[in-house]
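Entry: E3 ubiquitin-protein ligase
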Amino acid sequence: ALRLLFKMLSSCSKVGDPHPGQPYKGGNFYAFLPDNREGQKTAMLLKKAFEHGLTFQIKSCNGEERVTWGLIPHKTSWDGGKARNGYPDTQYLREVCTVL
């Protein structure tokens, strides 16, 4: 099993963000992939997406700006099925690679 950790620091938003110059709260974000050839390939694609700033976005939540997942789907749990962003979900790797 692969566990990806994304550490997003708190900072101030930049031009192009919803509220430039506003502070936002970061956090630790985890994603899970199977440890097989397809999972490792997907991990590399997710890394490239992260390096290009496509993984996260800044959103207002209860009057506070914070980092949240962007439009690329991530499995944030090992279980609970598709409805809870977990496994089993037989289509996930195919779907996320299409998005990437």
